Amino acid sequence: MGGIFGFVCREPRDLSTVNVGLSRLIYRGYDGAGMTWLNDSLEVTKALGDVSKTPLKVNGKSKVALGHTRYASRGWPTLENTHPLLDCNKKIAVVMDGIIDDYEEIRERLVKQGHKFTSTTDAEVIPHLLEGSRDYLKSAIDIISRVRGIYSFAFIVEGMDKAFVASAGQPIMIGLGDCKYISSDLPSLTGFAENAVILPENSVAEVTPEGVKVYDININVLSPQIKRVKYKEEIVDKGGFPHYMLKEVYDIPSCLVNSYTSLMEKYLSLAAMIVYGAKNIYVIGNGTSLHAGLISYYYFSEVGINANVVSAAEFPYYALQNISTGSVIIAISQSGETSDVIRSIKMAKQRGAVIVGVTNSVGSRLALESNIYLPITAGPELAVPATKTFTSTLVVLRTLSLYTGLNSGKKDRKDLEAFEKDLEELSKQIYTSLPQIEKQAEDAISKVEKDSLYITSSGINFPVALEGALKFKEAALAHAEGIQLGELLHGPIALTNKGYPIIIIKPSEEQAFDLYNKVVKSLSDRGSPIISVSPEGSVKSVETSRDLSPIANVVPLQLMAYKLGVKRGLPIDTPQGLVKAVVS
Ligand code: AGP
Known about the structure:
One of its GO terms (biological process) is UDP-N-acetylglucosamine metabolic process. It contains 17 helices and 25 strands. The protein is an alpha/beta fold. It is globular and about 75 Å long. The site of 2-deoxy-2-amino glucitol-6-phosphate (AGP) has 16 residues, from helix 8 and helix 14.
């Protein structure tokens, strides 16, 4: 798995271009990186580690080059397993993103035929399958037709001033600029191309300096989707911040408004009608997207809709059996590529469900598989710990619930206007308070000596505690547990001895205030170090309405996790062993 970036040009281009593209794809993997290009012969260089920190050592130019940054999902992070991977004659170099399911059988067959493998990756079967081909286009089509899995790959061949690019479900696109740029995502093409061809599932492109020709598996020429590359350079770069995570937290205020204004009335109304008319509703997602889904339970309840919120990983085991015609799945995925989500919606579709997708990635598999999708529009998020996409997803889900409320009669246009006003106000307040919250987060976290902590709240802010705990695990490699205030008293409080830190988010529901006060008192009596998150807390969140309070409260938690990661000197944006989109 990983990220692919390369170019095909009429005139030789600096090879360092590939380093720039790979750095922008670093969120896809950072176990190792490699590059291949054509001189008189096929050249290859590889290195272990994070290419955004240590660029590949390349000098000179070439008309054709391909690079890869790797997440070691199949095979250890060794130089041998780092892409590009070559055929036996070292004439074909392949980079691949995704997973091949039946690679063991294929490899066994190829070994029996005499092929010599040098790595333990699934991807290495591709160069050997291409070996000896007389027609690389046909051979690539043959691979995507026969080899099972979800993957995309690109390859170059000694003596050919072109590249071949194939997609068997995993996204890959070709930017159309002064050169043709091959990449795993759209944002990385910023500054290189204004438009990009998105390769459809099960297609192969022949990329020459003159153009891109795309074929389906029957070798028919396709006219694929062309998307605009509309990101600003500062969005794909760190913009002066030391880490993407911090930058992306600072992006939150502008993203909140942007996410709301980018939602189109006609799609919202349609999605709301679908949700309102559903026989049953399941909201699915993983990690941060699941936590946003859990908050939507409160949003939908308020408008008289019962939404079942289930991890996309668990959905097939028990919820799927309740799905039939009339069911609606609200599928949330920032990347739009997470396997659990894609697998679940495919199964649900087969049983007749309608899919409402919520994703930050317009060309993603979720967007393509959904009957209707609502964009998160938070811009590219490059740190593995998700921040601004969580808050923007909440904006989308709250808006959808309000539109659903228009159908159920529980909300009217005035509620929508009030939400819009509250959101604008919240965005302004977060914008002005961020430096202060950052400082308070740093001070608060400097007192955390232990490697484990609780984060607690109640009601609509309980999923925020779960989300905060996830951020501590990813950014600070600290164990944190999100727990409901009431549940704390049923055993877990036993651990809150002196020195065991606890972050308490003040609930937004008045009914929970008594419990909140009781827990705070009991913890103070025990001498537990308490960090309180509220408009009056030790780390102050911005005052806002109940429905927007999860956004206000998560920001201090994100910053505390970030600061602890910094204090521990951790690679916050690229935590070891984690990858932005979990594709398995
Ligand atoms: C969030 O910080 C994590 N990196 C992770 O839990 C993530 O939210 C999860 O893998 C789901 O990703 P998705 O939204 O792209 O589907």
